[in-house]
Amino acid sequence: MRAAAYSSFGPAADVLSIVELPDPVPGPGEVRVRLAASGVNPSDVKARAVSSRNAVYKRIIPHSDGAGTIEAVGDGVDKARIGARVWVFNAQWKRAEGTAAEFVCVPAEFAPALPANADFAVGACLGIPALTAWRAVTMNGGVSRRTVLVTGGAGAVGHYAIQMAKHEGAKVFATVSSPEKAAIAREAGADATIDYRTEDVGARVRELTGGEGVDRVVELDIAGNAKSSLDALKPGGTLAVYGSNKAEFAMPFMPAIVKNVTAAFFIVYELTPAQRRDGAAYVNSRLAMGQLKTRIAARFSLDRIAEAHAAVESGKTIGNVVLDIDAR
After folding, report:
1. Using CA atoms, how far apart are residues 35 and 92, in angstroms rounded to an integer?
2. Helix (H, G, I), strand (E, B) or coil at 170
């Protein structure tokens, strides 16, 4: 099979190359997916750029997410799954073989069915972004009839989170950094947007909520937003934290404890099996009902993977980036 791979860390154009490898064979409990598309997420490009958890592997095929068709199954997997259209997640978590290839083998539960009304490019965007948004919106009692602030509302996770929170019956606000991003967030369903570069987020949220604050913040960058997000929360509110631009950060203690704030941290790769099943079922249900839209900003061929990584790293691409893979 053809695959993109790297054996050292650094700039995409310097370390990524296209290689020929044997087709993988599914082990017990696994399925082999002939991939049609691979999602390129910020975590994928960060893992390639700097020595990280991937340093234990001699060669890495990048990317966690993808979509395609099951063409072989290992022992213990129902052969009726052969031929099924699926989306793939967690492919390169604690493994060296991701979805930037013509084939990938993953545990069967990491390849849920893809609804008939969703194409493979959409399927390749679901794993990290949609499951993260689902967990942030539904954890700790959910957001039905509550108020929510989504930080980074035009990003891949934020875009899904706005839609999910609205479908759960929440009133949703979103932070953005430009008029273009504000329009994207509003199109997704945000009731109001806040430009965090020019507005005081906490003050604006209190203005929008009659002085109360929001019940939940879906937090993209706790290191950068700890103060403003705590300021935006009402007493008893929840910080649903899925990301940080720094490994260590300071959080104001007194505002958090006086407000009885709950800080709930999670990483999508380490959801429990039950959570993964519930999340995939939720995402598929919303997709099947036409209630979950994906914003694909750019598509590249497998041969252009370095350009795809550069597009994500630039910060100028608003939406998901996808590799179209021509499996033979």
Report:
1. 14
2. coil
> Please, which residues have CB within 8 angstroms of residue 311's CB and are 6 or more apart in sequence?
40, 297, 298, 300, 317, 321
pTM of this prediction? Answer: 0.95
Amino acid at 93: W
CA angle 78, 76, 127 (to 5 degrees): 70
Q: What secondary structure letter does DSSP report for 97?
A: B
**SS3 for 309?**
helix
How far apart CA 49 and CA 65 sit, in angstroms, is 18
DSSP 4-65: EEBSS-S-HHHH-EEEE-PPP---TTEEEEEEEEEEE-HHHHHHHHS-SGGGG-SSBB--S-
Nearest to 307, CA basis, from 326, 325, 321: 321
Query: Position of tokens 């505002």?
Result: 255
Q: What residues does 148 pair with on adjacent strands?
A: 172, 216
Which domains occur in the chain, in start order?
2-125+294-324 (3.90.180.10), 129-269 (3.90.180.10)
Closest CA to 88 of 98, 80, 78: 98
The partner residues of 113 in beta bridges, in order of sequence, read: 86
> In a structure prediction context, what are the per-residue pLDDT tens digits for the chain, which is 328 residues long?
999 999 999 999 999 999 999 999 999 999 999 999 999 999 999 999 987 777 889 999 999 999 999 999 999 999 999 999 999 999 999 999 999 999 999 999 999 999 999 999 999 999 999 999 999 999 999 999 999 999 999 999 999 999 999 999 999 999 999 999 999 999 999 999 999 999 999 999 999 999 999 999 999 999 999 999 999 999 999 999 999 998 899 999 999 999 999 999 999 999 999 999 999 999 999 999 999 999 999 999 999 999 999 999 998 899 999 999 974 4
The three-state DSSP-derived secondary structure of 198-220 is CCCHHHHHHHHCCCCCEEEEEEC
